[in-house]
Amino acid sequence: MSIIVKYNKLFKTLEEKGPATSVLLLYGEEDYLKKVTIEKIEKFLNTKRIVFFGQETPEDHIRAELLSSGLFQSKKLIVVYEFERLKDREKLFSLPLNSGTFLICIVSSHCDKKKQKDIIQKARKYKHVQIIEFKPLDEMGFRAWIKSRFKKRNIHIDDSLLLFLQKLLPQNLTQAAKELEKLFLFMGEDTILQKEHLAILSGQKAHSLSSVLIEHMGFEKKYIRHIFASIDTMKTNEALYETETHIARIHDVHLGTFFSDKYRNKWKLSPYKKNKMIHTLKDASVMMRRLLEIEYTTKTSLHNERITKALIILSLLP
Question: Is the pLDDT of residue 30 over 90?
């Protein structure tokens, strides 16, 4: 059985029957597939997950939540990210959970292999703990996954371009999914992928708007001509996406709300940490509100690209 068939079978079972046990331990390199697993279980149980992070939460807080029963809640789903950082983590496996309470423990993909092995060995002592490893897809599976993203959006991609795209995308599904979202946004209403569309992918441009914005962070007024030159070569929806992402990163660093980066891609935030005092949180909030208003008008009444790009530039000024 190929690895992607194995994963699809797992997800189908979770959709139709839910989890086989009340406690699951997910580990491996593919965080994207762990995320899909949680979403399938959450949908089957028809409840919202309650999230904890191992580095931040004492074990007794999680235990109290697991053992408490809500008055209006028949199902409860507790998800513990960074499980390897939780002290006394093994105690959670032996708790007598109420019927309808489910626990999902997530071992981070960057967890030390020795520690991960120790966690798995201890978890195997408990027969009610289902342990699932998420390995990277093989080449054929990765290609099938990419193709399925296009099929869901009713976008045609021919086989030769699919192979070319596969070489451009990072093998990690979390990062590949982000690149594809950027690509789909750039395509707009186009229903056939062209090679020209692929210019938006990371690494395909020598000077991306993101790098220009980071380079001049806090000094936009001084370097406005340089920023505008970068925006001027882009499609409007592409420029909006890159600019909104940039401002959202500033928000994230100030508030510590970068969920996906919290345990996966911390390195991506290093330039923002270095420059985080240049923009205040209030500045970033004002800029984001302006950008969202611009995006809304482009979807309703404003369709002039030159005016829209000028508004994007103005939104970055104090």
Answer: yes
